[in-house]
Structure prediction request, 125 residues.
Amino acid sequence: MKKEIIMAQNAPAAVGPYVHAVKAGDLIFTSGQLGLNPESGTLPEGVEAQTEQAIKNLDCVLKAAGYSLSDVVKTTVFLADINDFGKVNEIYAKYFTGETPARSCVQVAALPKNGLVEIECVAVK
Prediction:
């Protein structure tokens, strides 16, 4: 199966040696998206604002490959503090509606750039 590298113009630059996403057949696997502002490269204050921006960044990556949030079948949400679970769910539920994707949500010791949330996904056409 041939793989295609996806780099989204409107998403923040990767903070390491990796790409925004890889498309393999009808599947796309995204890298984790922090809530970085794509223009300034900074994180907004608070987990709600970072979640909102992380999902917008994820959407930009998906759109660059011809996909949308409605094509997402699996997400993984990484939280710096599991106590933010409810706040993240409120924002997440605004973007993933109807037939929502499967999801894992875990607390991690730390995220790049001291982020509060990072989200990655798998989508299929």
Residues 47-64 form the longest helix (18 residues). The chain has one domain: 3-124. Residues 3-124 form a domain with the 60s Ribosomal Protein L30; Chain: A; fold (CATH 3.30.1330.40). The first strand starts at residue 3 and ends at 6.
